């Protein structure tokens, strides 16, 4: 059997593709020559794969996207197994990413754990995994930075379904943002910083018709660089875990076939083939039936798990007092548990549930009211898309309130939100904690911007309101003493500590404000 892996077109080669490796027996040399000629003379053989399509005859087409990051480290490759897709990564990280371990999933959604770590031994585990509704990695953002050594500092995963012709979502589903590197102490008084920090930031997306099927990169003491290995759907189509039925329709009754509207992508190809009287129709229909049976089996397993969860939720506690269905439903809503919708339906069927809301839904109106009374929060809220993201923002503002540190309560609420809502929550919480940790400095800086048009113009050069906040904080340190600033003439450990504690957008504003004010004469 012949198995070949290709990369996407390389600008330094006239060939449409480049052969990476091939597994052949000793009699297959003529085949290599034929493939080389065919690919060189007919680049259209490798193109976009139609929805529900697959590469025939066991040929495994892969794209190795360009590496993102720094130049150091030794090479590693970690492709997923046959009929698997990349569903996430586990990082070991501190200030930067020390090591990476890919997570792959099969057609049933089971996570395989057969990949080693690539990188150094430092850091704490951080899991980035696509949600069950969109389990496959489609693209990623990577930020790498450093002074003497540039290494990966931020990783963001964009997720979708493991089928062809995916559209990249607007927001990442899983994010690790390490703290930005801080320049060393300046060599001379009055300088803004010491060592120069190099930063590389880029995004990569799997080619049309493909999704991520592994990672590769370079590593040593840290993760120096990484990139995606992308592949197309295989002859045995990959099927993601179906959307959690509880979220919208409650429990789905066990049946030998999926509910209406839930089917495997291969079935689209099967219907098209039958309509054309294609010879492939019978084979595709067989694959469709098998795939639908898998989906139905997963739904039955989910229903069984929901039933088991409900029994646990309704089990009396140590006091022996029975638990009401409505109390169990409220608890499940607060946790974002899969049985929440079914328990809520039972509660309402019994005449209860008039005030049945998740903790997040209870907080959202309070967050919207807080934003209405705070011009800066209101400006940041208006920049969030309407819908789940803005709802998550309202929840985050109310949940964070006057807190200065992250904690298990906010984490519990964050975990109960959908991915889009989680993004809004993170934006709100990061802003609130940045300001709560530096309230006096933020107020002084905002007042200075209101009094000095030049400061106001520089402050709003970036549309992110968190940038404005970081700018305000630095203005109170390095700005005009006549307007209330401390009037510092150089950075030092204190200002660097404040900068390092801010969110990334606020850090950008802080750095810009520092440069702006130290370049002026006060």
Please render the helix and strand layout as text:
Blueprint: E1 3-7, E2 18-23, H1 29-41, E3 62-64, E4 68-69, E5 74-79, E6 85-93, E7 97-105, E8 111-112, E9 118-119, E10 124-129, E11 136-146, E12 151-160, E13 174-177, E14 198-205, E15 211-219, E16 223-231, H2 246-249, H3 266-275, H4 281-313, H5 325-335, H6 340-349, H7 359-372, H8 375-382, H9 388-400, H10 408-415, H11 419-437, H12 439-451, H13 453-459, H14 465-478, H15 493-500, H16 504-518
Antiparallel strand pairs: 1-2, 3-16, 4-16, 5-15, 6-7, 6-10, 7-8, 7-9, 11-12, 11-14, 12-13, 15-16
Question: Which structural class do you get from the secondary structure elements?
Answer: alpha+beta
**N-to-C terminal Cα separation, in Å?**
76 Å
CATH fold group of the largest domain: Vitelline Membrane Outer Layer Protein I, subunit A
Q: Could you name the CATH homologous superfamily of the largest domain?
A: Jacalin-like lectin domain
- Number of DSSP strand runs: 16
Low-confidence segments, ≥5 residues, pLDDT <50? 1-60, 235-256
Instruction: Tell me the overall shape.
Output: globular
Overall mean pLDDT:
79
Helix share, percent: 25-40%
Total number of helices: 16
The top level CATH class name of the largest domain: Mainly Beta
How big a fraction of the residues is strand? Answer: 15-25%
| Radius of gyration (Å) | 27 Å
Number of domains: 5
Question: Which key features would you list for this structure?
Answer:
single chain; disordered N terminus; five-stranded antiparallel sheet; 16 strands; 38% helix; 522 residues; Vitelline Membrane Outer Layer Protein I, subunit A; 16 helices; 19% strand; alpha+beta
